[in-house]
Amino acid sequence: xxxxxxxxxxxxTTLQMxxxxxxxxxQNSLLEKYNLQIHTQQRYQHGSDAPFDASVxxxxxxQIERKQQNAVNLNATQSYxxxx
Length: 84
Description:
By secondary structure, the protein is mainly alpha-helical. Helix content is 71%, strand content 0%.
């Protein structure tokens, strides 16, 4: 009985090639994802990319919009009251 290295004997060449191809395709897709992040300077493109971060971003954006609306309302009220 011969003792063979783990990588030989039971794993076919086709299976090894398919695994290698899958790994290369996966690495290429990750490179494209990171390249897009660098190019757009955005950490994620869709909410599903980082759900927690997306929810935090949305809540911060809502706070900013509320504060901007409050500032507009205050300016309108001040101009209205200054007329009287």
